[in-house]
Amino acid sequence: MGRFSDLWASGKFAVKARAEQDERDQTEAAHIFQEMSPELGVPEGTKAIFDALKSRRGQETGRWLRELSGAEQPTANQIVESSTPAAASANAFDETVAWVDGIFKEFADLAFEFNKTAVGSDLLVSYDNPQLFEKKSDAVWYKPVTRTYQGRLTTRQWALIIRGMETDIGVLLLPASMLLAFSGGQITDSEYPPFMQVSRGQDGKWSIGGETVTMAAIPHLAKELLGDLIRVSSGVMNESELFSKSSDKPVFNGNLAVGYKGQPAPASAASQGVAQTAPQPNALDAGETDTQNLSIHDACDIVDEIVNFELKRLYEQAGKLQPGAPGAESVRKSISAVEKFRTKIVEAFEEYTHSTLPANPLQNAAPDKSDLLR
């Protein structure tokens, strides 16, 4: 399946699974869902890596960041931050926004560098910048509003979500096929709890695993979290990649995803000096177009294929340019524009799916399998 077909299938499953409260039925439905779409299932090896990372995040991360801060000389920004008395009394949610924005600023640079070497693999990272979400509770008479500020990184099969609340920031890793259920509020924290949290105490100080951290730790934290996403997505974890003190830029199969055995990307026409044109998906080939039988997610998959091709071309171009070289900034802006374009498509598709599926969650499901889900 393509990215949008996966999301559509997972949305149908999530709606149905939430409607069935009996745990036995949900387990059975999960097995049937994996049979319908095996590529959406989580391999045992990947799950083992995810479980290992969960056990190492939190206290170990906080201790690692504390040791890093002790080994480094404080910069001017760190000195100003630690000596500002207003920090403790600042609005908690404003501080949350500042933390999340800082993390995603680092993600943008890290993903750009990593994607130069991950072109053509399922590990290519796309990022959605954080947005403010407000949810009103009608269950209480004064209708309180819950605010979250969240963004995400995604690979073909996994997503890393940074979710900022009033006094804590949760970091979640979940299969990309569950993104629709998560964004629709159909997945609870008990089902996919954060595997790490950055918490704000009553004294205004932030901590990870009980260890006090400042915003000066954000570059190190962002690099480690990107590494977590790549390790889980690639199905391999090299111990030397964890808690690295290296300031090297993240490199595919260099200092991230070491040991990944994905299919090598075929040589591009650009690398051979041949002029490139956008690929023509089969559904759009002359004489073969059958628009009446194309669904929305099929159409989005076609667009996504073309977007991926354009990103691959741009990243290959960026990889040949040194920072500051003529044209380097222009290529990066083009990549950012294409990423933003794809983000808008994904957001619109998620909104469309959430509004469509609840009315008839099994519409378009394969007849022989949908009967089993009833």
Describe the structure.
The protein has 374 residues and is of the alpha+beta class. Helices cover 45% and strands 13% of the residues. It is globular, with a radius of gyration of 22 Å. Helix 3 packs antiparallel against helix 8. The protein starts with a helix and ends with a helix. Strands 1-2-3-4-5-6-7 form a 7-stranded antiparallel β-sheet. A hairpin with a 3-residue loop joins strand 2 and strand 3. The longest helix is centred in the last third of the chain and has 29 residues, at 328-356. The chain folds into 3 domains: 1-41; 48-241, no CATH class; 274-360.
Helical segment count: 11
For the largest beta-sheet, the strand count, sense and barrel status come to: 7 strands, antiparallel
Strand order of the largest sheet: 1-2-3-4-5-6-7
Task: List how many beta strands DSSP finds.
Answer: 7
Determine the structural class based on helices, strands and strand pairing: alpha+beta
- Write the element-wise H/E pattern from the N-terminal end onward: HHHHHHEEEEHEEEHHHH
Quaternary class: single chain
Approximately what portion of the residues adopt beta-strand conformation? 5-15%
Question: What's the mean pLDDT score?
Answer: 75
* Total number of distinct structural domains: 3
| Cα-to-Cα separation, first versus last residue | 24 Å
Helical fraction:
40-55%
The low-confidence runs, each spanning 5 or more residues with pLDDT under 50, are 15-26, 32-39, 73-89, 264-287, 359-374
Radius of gyration: 22 Å
Shape: globular
